[in-house]
Records
---
Amino acid sequence: MREELLFFDLKRPPFAKDFALSETWIEPSRENAVSLLVRAVEARQHALVTGEPGVGKTVVVRAMAERLPATHHRVTYVWNVAVGRRDFYRNLSVALGFEPRGTAAAVFDGVQRELRAGWAEHRLHPVLIIDEAHVLPDATLQHLHILANFDRDANPLLSLVLVGLPELRDRLKLGVHRSLLTRIGTHVDIGRTTPDDTAAYVRNRLEYAGSRSEIFGLDAITTVHEMTAGVPRVVATLADMALRVAADRKEKHIGRAIIREAWKILPHH
């Protein structure tokens, strides 16, 4: 067990990424984004989620997936998308749970059959979440409008949720991709968190880890927010390093000075 966990009497690392979906905590300013995505998918629409690195796009999408009733939705994630069209559909086939075979057209046909079967047999609405979609090759991105148009616009059998950096929306505005953009009904842009969000996030993660005291002082949390500009991923990294610095110095209370010392150790400044 890490020294800082023993020093602060914590049961688990508070800022680790490997927490269960049921333990996902959403900042109040993100709740509206989650609700918009849930409503879009339940209406069988397609959605676009954009934001700078580290602002919490994946957390918002995970929260959306957690809130979709499993009895009505089949959520599939595709992560490795920086590949050609054939390999993209091969990866999608594997994610859907069947072995891809044959040409690119044959693999695509297999994906269509699998999605149709899930709806016909179990009435499960397929939800395809494509993370890091901004790195999709143009040929693959251009082909997604066929999936978006799956079973006619009037009765879409699939909901696409494209997740990526802000430049993804700029790419979709280009003429070659506008056919896909016009089929997207909801766009959620994830910004940086507020000071209150940062404070609530740090306290929530410490409570999750078993903390029974206020480890971070108000001045410390204010400094964390100022230095990280409210980017949750950097907030977690800095707060985690501050715990290590405080444990090394045998200080049970973290103030502004420890935050500044921890910041100097990180590569972000």
---
Amino acid sequence: MSHDIYIRITKLALAATLIASASLALAQPRFGNPSPTAGSDTSQRANASADQALYQPVEYTNANKRGPAVIVIPGEIKSNNATFLQKFTANNIADFGEVELSSANFPVLERSNLGPLLKEFELAYNLGDPDQARKFLRMGKLKTTKYVVKFDILKTEQVAAAQQGFDGRAIGNIAGLLGGYGSRGGAVASAGVGSVQTSESSGVWIIGMRYKIVNAETTEQVATGYTEEKMEVGAKSTSVLGVSNSQQGGVSLDTMVQRLVQKSVWEIDSKYK
């Protein structure tokens, strides 16, 4: 085969690959935005804020290396924060753990495969009862499990809050006095400055997560780790001469928990494969 023919075949193969990739991209689901404010300034600002909270996959260091078989059992939520407890259960956190460990190339046994044995299985490990745990390890797919992993929430607390604002009514009254209430200029100045209202508030939370890796056969702890993240929620508003502008947002508790799981799994992937 001549060099020119080889180059032509290579180019044709590359072109075919690009066409196939483009066809696949075009086939991806596309969703519209039915909001009546879609494309407006408020929509753009709200979407820009929401983009910061979108799920971001992590590039795990050893993702190309297959890890040992694991099962994720629901951990403990030791926080007494009512908002968090209303929103989350240990099962939610274990679900995030299964997703991320799978992404890191750990074979994960679905908890649903355990059926009614799940509660007994959790109890055996939480109590550190190796004899009882081994009974479950002899059953079906559990025979291949090397590690049991759990994620515990140890802290959810608001550690800081700050707010500031401006109310123009007092300065507006002064402007009216200086300009004279009988004058048109004084009245305009008083109305204009007095209409200005601004407010801004921020709250910062700290959420802490611990992970534990337990030997599936002996129930002995293999490793543990702890990580924290800050979560900020804020709001601001402005009103001038009847024209108002407000915005609020921040990373949600769901996103924070998932990011903490990602940090924990990154460490597990880096150290314990």
